[in-house]
Amino acid sequence: MDDEQTRTSSSDLEPEQVGVVWFEPARAVIARWHDEGPVIEHLESDVPVRRRAVGSVRRGPARPFGGGRVAGQGTENMHEEEMRRFLTEVASRLADLALVEVSGRGLTHERLAELLRRLAAGRNAQPSVTTRSLSRRPSDNQLAARLRKLADVELPRRLVGRYRLPVRGPATPTGRPLRPAAGRRTLRPARVPERDEIEHEVEMMLEETPSEPARDLSGPAPDA
Known about the structure:
Blueprint: H1 3-10, E1 18-23, E2 27-34, E3 37-44, H2 76-93, E4 99-104, H3 108-122, E5 128-133, H4 140-150, H5 194-208
Parallel strand pairs: 1-4, 4-5
Antiparallel strand pairs: 1-2, 2-3
Helix pairs in contact: 2-3
């Protein structure tokens, strides 16, 4: 089931009815909705690492009591027993959900999904159980984001920063809202270049200086 079909099936559900779980033999991480946000729960398991029995016991005429390497104690039976116990514990925590997405590596998470379907069929319930294969375990924030996406409850976009919603009112060309001016603003005239300013001051000084009458440099007329 793809994301579009999952969102369509979860559109009529409450966020508390949706859950996301990461499952592997060593641990399980469950993301559920509680009150107003997602809650992450970590569960550690006691499942031992699967190790086959090594060695063999040889019997024959030359060795009536056996010989060769001593057979080692394998952990296959203990691994399966603890795995079934851990699967039951995780499934019991997800039994009240109507939509569950189980993710993990390999095929182990498929066993949890199949167990959830069998338990739901036993109580005549019809939950939507989907699986998702991932190569690495997601972080808690990634699980919370996945839960929000499936529950159709996205985070509100920020009004500041690089990505923002369009604001109402005056704004800069980049979309940032203009802050109101603090107090009265003094409008300053446009600045004039320094050379033009000097020439203007010289002209003003020349206009303010009174003009003197022209002197007669020819001198007195000679006597006849």
